[in-house]
């Protein structure tokens, strides 16, 4: 492997990671597959790229490809890569749990709105936010409704603390 192809592979690997982290999973898969073609699959770098490819496959909805690649990586020469592959296979093969619908937030489909309707809504929201707000009036509290009695708990607590401190001072001599 030449130094030039190794440099290209590292650039593709970084591009694939960046695409994955920004949510562009298909682009990540493409870049990582190209990077694997340029590096030795049994090297440490090859193992890292393949582990990232497993996660990109899963994110892109290609779970079967991810599991198949993990099964291959379980026999990788570097122990860290094979250990990660075993953990990932366990996670990928785990049964999917059903989430209650009340745990989920529904995001409205904005594609159904026409362009004109969305512009009207945006304009209405911006004019509402630009209007000056009215100063709030002070709310007066009726003092006859406020509890102003002494709280006995405070006196009990102060006496208890002073007794404890006094006994500690007396016992220290």
From TrEMBL:
Question: Where would I find the TPR repeats?
Answer: 9-42
Q: Which Pfam families match?
A: TPR_19
Q: Where are the transmembrane segments?
A: 153-171
UniProt keywords, alphabetically: Membrane, TPR repeat, Transmembrane, Transmembrane helix
Q: By its UniProt entry, which Gene3D superfamilies does this protein fall under?
A: Tetratricopeptide repeat domain
Give yes or no: UniProt keyword Isomerase: no
Q: What is this protein called?
A: Tetratricopeptide repeat protein
Q: Which organism is it from?
A: Hassallia byssoidea VB512170
């Amino acid at each position: 492997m030449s130094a030039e192809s190794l440099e290209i592979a590292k650039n593709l690997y970084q591009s694939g990671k960046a695409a994955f982290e920004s949510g562009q999973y298909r682009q990540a898969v493409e870049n990582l597959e190209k990077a694997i073609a340029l590096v030795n699959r049994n090297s440490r770098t090859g193992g890292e790229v393949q582990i990232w490819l497993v996660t990109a496959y899963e994110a892109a909805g290609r779970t079967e490809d991810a599991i198949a690649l993990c099964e291959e990586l379980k026999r990788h020469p570097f122990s860290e890569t094979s250990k990660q592959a075993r953990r990932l296979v366990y996670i990928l093969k785990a049964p999917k749990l059903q989430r209650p619908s009340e745990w989920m937030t529904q995001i409205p489909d904005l594609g159904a709105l026409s362009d004109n309707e969305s512009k009207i809504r945006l304009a209405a929201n911006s004019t509402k936010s630009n209007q000056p707000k009215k100063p709030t009036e002070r709310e007066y509290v009726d003092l006859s409704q406020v509890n102003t009695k002494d709280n006995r708990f405070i006196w009990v607590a102060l006496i208890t603390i002073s007794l404890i401190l006094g006994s500690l001072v007396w016992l220290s001599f």
